[in-house]
Specification:
heterodimer; A: about 775 residues; alpha+beta; Rossmann fold; Helix Hairpins; 3 domains; six-stranded mixed β-sheet; five-stranded antiparallel β-sheet; B: about 60 residues; mainly alpha; 3 helices; about 0% strand; globular
């Protein structure tokens, strides 16, 4: 996933009206893409974002709504759009699918981070919440805070539980003490007594209470029988007397009636029933005569009415007979019931071993109802004693239950308190530790980011007093981040005091620091025209900083329309060993994006000198420009005397004599040629004096051939012009490393060196 | 790169073990829950009580 990039092919995405191919140079992790505005730089950045993130960020926030309508080139459709990235070990291709950008194979999709000019201040000027969102992936430990919250809640709950336990312990201790006092403090150890009491078996008391209750119930049931039996006997006597009276009355009536009256009545009653059912008859059911059948029912009823008194007496006698039977039955029932309850009482009395405080009847309950009343009267005082004995046992039972409960609660809460006393300090310590680790972790992460931002910022703005960049979480707000800085010794917000240029740099530094923190070696970093507002004095340092930061990433693409960068690269003023320089020329609707080859001046001079026949005018012109650059560098480096001029531009005629005398003789360069077996670097020493002397001798060739139309040139030899070019080429090849640039670094204190120490220029100071 | 919560979970659990507030063998099973915010009160209590029990035994 982090193999070097080889080639990017863009088909019909935005400015690429025809397929555009960008080949990356092997061994160079930084590509600087230079072009004037409108040459297609952003299209290249868009292509990386398209394949890496599935979007085209340059179109966003322009009020376009959905931007995918504008992704394809004019005259093409979304299906024509494709971006292909070839790496050392694979190729992946991105196209526009039905819903989103589709990359095949998906697992080869490159990781891309893009920063554009318009986004550069986002992180600095954003609200604290949005700023936090940008760094949350590095510092957000919200899930840990949730777990920490449950630990905190547990501590709160258990602390509360302990307070409850303490209260319950005290409460139940008081209760036990009251019981202990009430019991007369049987032994000195209150809790020992309570423990012994609560473990005592109370099932015996329960049995006694139940037995007493049964005895009371059985006795109470017996007490009702004397009255019931007496009442039943009286009732029976009464009914018998009524029965005799009814019999007498009936006999008297019968004596006045014929002897067969009863039988006649029975016949009439039968006829009445029959006629009630058969209302329409033609013959008498008894004699079968058809005469006088019309009013037969009326005549039967009429005759029966004449016997009503007899019937009433008969009915009354029958009623009294039934009443006597009922009374006899009731009496028998009470006698049997009394007998059963007597047996039940005796069973209660005899089957239980009664404690001594329970007084029982002296004799067994009599089975004869007539004796029961006397027996009950004799023992009538006993139930009161039984009540008292039952209540006493009930009190003891309640006492035991209450004591048992108090002791169990006291014991359980004492245990709970003891356990919590042991656990709570550990919980507290764990919570403190978790909170401290979280804070330390977050602070360390923020500090790491801030420190990295500070280092990057300081590299661009060294010693300008704008330092000590800090990132601070706002403790009063969730997910809120402030950026702080030190300005003139005061802690402040950089937005308040930094210039736009400084804020731009700060924004870029924050982006670079964050990007470098997460899988930098797998990330293609794309910086789209981010140098625009950086002022001239800081650009070189910013570029140097970008060079060194780019090495951390899989690849770094920087687009710029900053022309001095192009020139400085051409002149080797910037180390470019890791840098590929690509120049875009004007975009056209026919050709789309186009690169042009940009040959450094030194390389151009080498080509001119090697041509046959050489073009003397071009050789001298190019060599003169390079010579001026070389002398400009040397006179500045050694503070040589030149006319003090407002324009600050000098001619070869002024610069070359300035590098003279002891300085010219002392100037030498150690050129790196390789290393020995032990890795020791090997150098070849070349004196610059001979080059400068020979150039001084033939320098007029530059003006004669290279600058003007001059008849004198007719008299000079072409070989002098060519030699001028060759000497300048020799001088510059010794002095400058095409990859590492000019020897401008004086950190050794002995010589000036290039990056990687490929050149060492002596002396360090101009000789007296 | 591991998520910040996972990184911090490792640090916290290591520290708890170092302070004898957690058994080393419990680290693995608590790691994911702690990092995902799913560690419940009973999980915390059990883990701390187990460590306490071992501490008291020792």
């Amino acid at each position: 996933m982090n193999k070097p990039l080889k080639k990017l092919i863009i088909e019909h995405l935005r400015g690429s009206v025809v397929p555009f191919s960008l080949t990356f140079e092997k061994g160079k992790k930084l590509a600087v893409i230079y072009g004037e505005n409108g040459t297609g730089k952003s299209t290249i950045c868009d292509a990386f974002e398209f394949i890496g993130k599935g979007k085209v960020g340059s179109l966003e926030n322009r009020g376009l709504g959905r931007t995918d309508r504008y992704w394809h080139s004019m005259g093409k459709s979304p299906s024509d759009v494709a971006v292909e990235l070839e790496t050392a070990d694979s190729t992946c291709r991105a196209t526009i699918g039905p819903k989103e950008v589709v990359v095949v194979p998906a697992d080869r999709r490159p990781r891309v981070e893009v920063l554009r000019r318009k986004q550069i201040l986002d992180l600095i000027e954003a609200e604290p919440g949005k700023r936090y969102a940008a760094i949350s992936r590095f510092v957000d430990v919200g899930a840990i805070e949730t777990s920490e919250g449950t630990l905190r809640q547990l501590l709160t709950d258990l602390t509360s539980n302990r307070e409850v336990a303490v209260a319950r312990v005290q409460e139940n201790q008081d209760t036990i003490r009251q019981f202990w006092d009430a019991a007369g403090k049987p032994i000195p150890d209150m809790f020992g007594w309570a423990k012994a009491e609560s473990s005592r078996d109370i099932s015996k008391a329960d049995g006694e209470i139940a037995a007493i209750h049964s005895l009371q119930t059985a006795f109470t049931q017996l007490t009702s029988y004397p009255d019931r039996v007496a009442g039943a006997e009286a009732k029976l006597n009464f009914e018998k007397e009524a029965q005799q009276a009814a019999e007498v009355e009936l006999n008297q009536l019968l004596a006045n009636l014929s002897q067969d009256t009863g039988q006649v009545v029975e016949i009439l009653q039968a006829a009445q029933k029959y006629l009630a059912k058969h209302t329409m008859i033609e013959t008498c059911p008894l004699c079968e005569s058809g005469e006088k059948t019309e009013d037969l029912a009326d005549r039967v009823n009429h005759r029966l009415a004449a016997f009503s008194e007899y019937q009433a007496a008969l009915t009354k006698r029958m009623g009294t007979n039934q009443n006597v039977q009922k009374a006899e039955h009731q009496l028998q029932s009470w006698l049997e019931s009394a007998s059963q309850h007597v047996a039940q009482f005796e069973l209660c009395r005899q089957t239980y071993t009664w404690p001594q405080d329970i007084q029982l009847p002296a004799s067994a309950a009599p089975r004869e109802a007539s004796q029961l009343s006397a027996w009950l009267t004799t023992n009538s005082q006993l139930p009161a004693g039984w009540n008292k004995a039952g209540a006493l046992r009930q009190d003891r039972k309640q006492f035991h239950i209450a004591l048992n409960k108090a002791y169990a609660t006291w014991r359980d809460n004492t245990q709970a308190q003891k356990e919590l006393d042991s656990l709570l300090p550990r919980l507290t310590k764990a919570l403190e530790l978790v909170a401290a680790e979280r804070k330390q972790f977050t602070d360390a992460k923020l500090s790491e980011i801030a420190e990295r931002v500070g280092v990057l910022y300081e590299a661009v703005h060294p010693g300008e007093g704008l330092n000590k960049i800090s990132l601070q979480l706002d403790l009063k707000k969730r997910a809120s981040l402030e950026i702080g800085a030190s300005f003139c010794g005061q802690d402040t917000r950089p937005q308040a005091y930094f210039s736009d240029s400084h804020l731009d740099t700060l924004g870029l530094c924050v982006f670079l620091a964050l990007s470098a923190m997460e899988n930098a070696e797998k990330t293609v970093l794309v910086l789209d025209d981010v140098l625009a507002s950086v002022d001239e004095p800081h650009v070189d340092r910013l570029i140097e900083m970008l060079y060194s930061e780019a090495l951390k990433f899989r690849h770094c693409i920087i687009t710029t329309h900053y022309r001095p960068w192009k020139q400085k690269l051409r002149w080797g003023w910037l180390q470019n060993g890791q840098c590929q320089f690509v120049e875009l020329t004007k975009w056209t609707a026919t050709n789309g994006l186009t690169t042009i080859s940009s040959i450094p001046d030194i390389e151009r001079l080498r080509q001119l000198v090697a041509e046959s026949p050489p073009d003397c005018q071009l050789v001298c012109a190019k060599a003169g420009v390079i010579l001026e650059a070389s002398l400009d560098f040397l006179t500045l480096q050694y503070e040589c005397l030149v006319p003090y001029r407002q324009s600050g531009s000098y001619t070869v005629g002024e610069l070359l004599p300035a590098v003279s005398g002891n300085l010219r003789q002392a100037l030498r360069v150690d050129v790196l040629t390789g290393s020995d077996e032990s890795g020791q670097l090997l150098y070849k020493t070349v004196n610059l004096g001979p080059y400068l002397d020979e150039i001084s001798r033939i320098v007029q060739a530059r003006n004669v051939f290279g600058c003007h139309f001059n008849q004198i040139s007719f008299d000079l030899l072409d070989s002098d012009a060519l030699r001028f070019g060759q000497q300048v080429l020799g001088l510059i090849e010794v002095l400058v490393d095409g990859e590492a640039g000019w020897p401008k670094n004086g950190k050794s204190g002995e010589y000036w060196q290039t990056a990687g120490t490929t050149r060492k220029l002596y002396p360090y100071k101009k000789p007296a | 790169m591991e998520a910040p919560s996972v990184q911090l979970a490792d640090k916290i659990l290591d520290r708890l073990v170092k302070e004898n507030l957690l058994l080393a063998e419990d680290k693995t099973k608590l790691r994911a829950k702690l990092a995902e915010g799913k560690l419940k009160a009973e999980d915390w209590r059990l883990a701390l009580e187990l460590a306490q029990a071992k501490d008291l035994k020792a």
